[in-house]
Amino acid sequence: MSMNNRMWMLVALVVWATSTLAQDSNQYDQISNKRFDPATFLWYDKPAAEWNEALPVGNGRLGGMVFGNALAERIQLNEDTYWTGGPYNAVVKEGYKALPEIRQLVFKGEMKQAHNLFGRTLMGYPVEQQKYQSLANLQLTFKNTGEVTGYRRWLDLKTGVTSLQYVSGGVTYKREVFSSVPDQVIVVRITASKPGSISFQANLHGVRNQEHSNYATDYFRMDGDGKDELILTGKSADYLGVAGKMKYEARLKATTEGGTIKVTDRDLVVENANTVTLYFAAATNFVNYKDVSADQHKRVLDYLDKIKDKSYATILQAHLADYKQLFDRVVLRLPVTANAYLPTNERMQQNMTASDPQLAALAYQFGRYVLMSSSRPGTQAANLQGIWNNDMNPAWDSKYTTNINLEMNYWAVESANLSECAEPLIQLVKQLTDQGAQVAKEHYGCRGWVCHQNTDQWMVAAPMDGPAWGAFTPGGAWLCTMLWEHYLYTQDKQYLQDIYPVLKGAVDFYMDFLVPHPNGRWLVTNPSTSPENFPASPSNGPFFDEVTGGMLPGTTICAGASIDMQILSDLFGGYTQAAGILGKDAGYVSTVIAAKQRFPPPRAGKDGTLQEWADDWGQLEKEHRHASHMYGLYPGNVLSVSGTPTLIPACKAVLEQRGDGATGWSRAWKTALWARLRDGNRANKIFKRYLKEQASPQLFAKCGKPMQVDATLGMTAAISEMLVQSQEGVIDLLPALPDEWQDGEVKGIRARGAFELQFSWQTGKVNRVEVMSGQGSLCRIKPGAALQVTANGRKVKVQKAKDGTLTFPTVKGQTYILQ
User: CA 296 to CA 26: how far, in whole Å?
Assistant: First the structure.
């Protein structure tokens, strides 16, 4: 194809995107103002061939994956509290009695013996945890009236509505699907251009585990008036000796304009309707992690009763009002090229060779959409798959993995202006302190609370999976740094008062758990691990793990892993600041500060890389997916270009050694790390390879084959870091801008200190900034250009530093203009 022909084709696509799609006054005009915005619009010319290609909808509690098949639609459904088992406790009594011997073995270098003793005495029981479950599938089978043409499906991030349109038998058919927060239902709207053209069968069925026939007891039954409703009920499976106590009910309610509707023995049948609206409601008996006494039947009836007198238009408008007040807060504009109007899957495949900067804006906004759709106040926190899970045996149980993945899910929640969506995470951490305190006492003989590398809906906190993974004690401490970040962004002292006991409890544990290193200078964690990497320590190598019953390439057990000490540095630092702000525990704070001063400092090893362990060891796996000892660079605040410049070459050496590949979440982390190193081009290169190699067509991340939302959300955070950084008390604009992003604009991005920013740039230089002060904090900002500051048209007195930092006081609610 000639260049001219190619250009004409791209022009035609742009015309189609901005006019042909906008012709649909019932859908596209109504929800998108006749605009095809490549920063907020995903579209495809084929239906999903598999689950990983379907488009997600969610309201934090109810999730759906929409395949978009014209004649045989499938919508896979989830409810966020449907897990195996029920409330249980994994604490092992008096495990602490073996702790002194384990520590002695570690300090003597007898790591394998320490590993197996830990496995025999300190592992939780059961050793594994419970699984997040798939709830149901809605299948719609349409009468085939002719060849399908003009097919397209899309997800409009500005509305949270996924749609499809096609022509068959001379009739244009359209479908809209969304998950409503105000009304707590998933809505499917089906329309046609010719009256009486809609005929289909709907089936609602559960998901059975083929390996364990008793794993789930989903079944169908008919209830109600028997004319317009399908009902599905069931219970969770017993697993690992934990009784399945979760009960659920799901209902599909249909309304039509014209035509007929009836229910047969298993199907809801619609004939010759003009318009059909389906409402899916579901609930479980879950109250909280130790109470499953709710009435799932009454809950579902209440949801449907609430909408029985509402029109589709009313329900849609309520959804849009709720959705847009969150999503519309942030706008990101990057340079637009012709490729931006290609189908999203083609954009992703071509982005390595054809410039499409606006694809980064789309990935950024899709991450915001995923977080909004899987984490809302009152719901469970987003798990490994958010709320979208197709399996009864999901990869890694679709749990909460706290040695990177759960935290990554929420890295962007503050900077991307979705602070309310952090509430489920905050509640999760509070609930973890229950069993966490029991584990601290019984497993370690310590005060406070602790959580290891995983938890589930039942908020267990004991070590799991085996010592190679389970000996990671700072999972809860890492989560506490996320709670502190929420305060840094909001400056909400009432909130800080609320979480102070949680922070102090985590510190209490480590004040008891830390022990002197044999060198006599340091305080270190023991036992410790660096997730999930096997050190090339003396005599480490293949051995039989008594817990897993298999061979391991080595043990991860050590003392004072770098990630432990970096997380604790942030935890102790945040706690002491919180205590000072609230005027609490001054004497105790002094002892905490003294302990922190004895932490082993970050340092470079003999190979030039930042040391991952207290001892200068190499690693058994050359390009390990984790970069645990880089926590202090990102998301932590222990290492930085300006604060620890002599260690930056060692940080870069680690990233060069690990490479730019591995899993989706690993690439997201590396993108953010290179952003903190102020190398926007390297960060962008990793991001683009991730889209091509580690992301599904709808921008969900993959960890191998399985979907995980961590990288999807982590990339949103990484893009924020490329545009704004504020971890060192200064708002630094465009610290890692890629060459491809030379012109752009962002509105609504947030910085620590409760500041909301809007700024634009040309040829890589900021030309205008608006700073809204949420709490009246002192503003320190480095715009990268000589700008004057005004408020209400009046010049503001500013202190200017040699490095270009501007400092000025602010008033709560006031907007300041830099230009």
Answer: 35
The pLDDT value given to residue 661 = 82
Q: Which band of pLDDT confidence, cut at 50, 70 and 90, is reported for residue 15? A: very low
State which fold the 95-124+359-725 domain adopts.
Glycosyltransferase (1.50.10)
State the pLDDT confidence band at 163, using cuts at 50, 70 and 90. very high
pLDDT tens digits for 549-570? 889 999 999 999 999 999 999 9
Residue ranges of the domains in the chain? 1-36, 43-83+131-328, 95-124+359-725, 739-818
CA distance 378 to 394: 24
Over range 478-484, report the average pLDDT: 98
C-alpha distance from residue 465 to each of 96, 204, 401, 436, 475 (Å): 19, 36, 12, 17, 14
Q: What would the two tokens of residue 652 be? A: 């870069």
> Which amino acid would we find at residue 166?
Y
Nearest CA to 423 among 491, 501, 482?
A: 482
Q: What is 739-818's CATH topology?
A: Immunoglobulin-like (2.60.40)
CATH class of the 43-83+131-328 domain in this structure? mainly beta
Contacts of 296 (CB under 8 A, 6+ apart): 247, 248, 249, 283, 284, 285
Instruction: Give the Cα separation of 457 and 266 in Å (integer).
Output: 32
Q: Pick left, alpha or beta for residue 56 (phi over 0 → left; psi -120 to 50 → alpha; otherwise beta).
A: beta
Q: What is the DSSP letter of 20?
A: I
pLDDT surpassing 80 at residue 23: no
Q: Is 594 exposed, middle or buried (0-12, 13-18, 19+ CB in 10 A)?
A: exposed
